[in-house]
């Protein structure tokens, strides 16, 4: 596996909205990418901390607040 090649191909698939499967079929991503973007919310650091505090401990250990250079983090709210 070549991680650089995989990353390049992944970015190309995101940009074009599709990719060619190993079997040769076209896999359409446009609708899925649109749905992901529509469901994405931006949280300020304080909001993100409040959301993370509501997660079970084992999950909150996997999520971290963004570094100072990344002031806002984006996660999907896991509980309503």
How would you sum up this structure, described in words?
There is one protein chain. The chain has 2 domains: 3-38, no CATH class; 41-72, no CATH class. Strands 1-2 form a two-stranded antiparallel sheet. A hairpin with a 5-residue loop joins β1 and β2. It contains 4 helices and 2 strands. It has 80 residues and is mainly α. The radius of gyration is 17 Å and the shape is elongated. It has helices at 3-16, 30-38, 45-53, 57-60, and strands spanning 18-20, 26-28. It starts with a helix and ends in a 20-residue tail after the last helix. The relative contact order is 0.13. 45% of the residues lie in helices and 8% in strands.
List the helices and strands and how they pair.
Layout: H1 3-16, E1 18-20, E2 26-28, H2 30-38, H3 45-53, H4 57-60
Antiparallel strand pairs: 1-2
